[in-house]
Design goal:
Length: 236
């Protein structure tokens, strides 16, 4: 049995919680090709609930969150210690958005709230490493929804992809850590409704541009999902 551990770092936006599943359910949907054969345990780490035995698991996912990794919460400090232990054990660890940032911060990188403002919509990223854990792509269009950015990579990390707005959009460490600022688990409908829910905090021009991108552009989640699955199951 393949045992997956999902470290859920925050709840769904309160305005959407009645209509959309939790982040762990989004990942179950994304990985449905394999998830029916996997055991997936979910820990709401923002409630300070963590797994006790890390080596019981074949892979870990850290989800997105509205929290910032620089915020002074005890559970975030505990998460950093968990990340260090997982990295030391070399168990495959996937970080998405907040998870991407938490891995960077825990392992010696640096994260800030960007002065550039919100990165929302479907954005093109250019790969810096063609043969990466994300796959063999030169460019990808992915859904982004963030204010914070990784601005310094951890030691031994390798940059996978970025763009002029978010220079460090993805990185890896060896073959056991994969971090991605984008949201492959989001779909267009959820992203549009989340954008509407957060409208008051987003610059009007940024908001309108994001709506246009989400309504007119394709996103490449399906292209990278098989590679994410292969990454997670490599220690199977």
């Amino acid at each position: 049995m393949f045992n997956l551990c999902i470290l859920q770092a925050g709840p769904i936006n309160r305005y959407l919680v009645q209509d959309y599943p939790s982040y762990d359910k989004m990942f179950s949907s994304l990985l449905d090709e394999k998830i029916q054969f996997w055991n997936a345990d979910v820990y709401n780490i923002y409630d300070n609930i963590f797994p006790e035995k890390l080596d019981n698991y074949n892979a870990f996912i850290i989800t997105g969150s509205a929290y910032g990794v620089y915020e002074n919460h005890l559970w975030i400090q505990e998460l950093f210690e968990i990340i260090k232990k997982i990295a030391h054990l070399k168990i495959p660890l996937l970080g998405i958005c907040f998870g991407h940032q938490a891995i960077a911060q825990a392992l010696g990188g640096h994260v800030i709230k960007s002065s550039k403002g919100w990165g929302v919509g479907i954005k093109e990223i250019t790969t810096k490493k063609y043969n990466s854990l994300l796959g063999d792509f030169n460019k990808l269009n992915l859904i982004f929804f963030h204010q914070d950015q990784v601005v310094k990579l951890p030691q031994n990390a390798e940059l996978i992809a970025g763009n002029s707005f978010c220079n460090i959009s993805s990185f890896s460490i060896g073959d056991s850590v994969l971090a991605l600022q984008a949201h492959p688990e989001f779909n267009i409908d959820f992203s549009l409704k989340l954008l509407h829910a957060r409208k008051s905090s987003i610059e009007p021009a940024t908001y309108l541009e994001a709506i246009n991108e989400l309504e007119t552009l394709e996103h490449d989640s399906e292209l990278i999902t098989p590679n994410i699955i292969n990454f997670l199951r490599q220690k199977c």
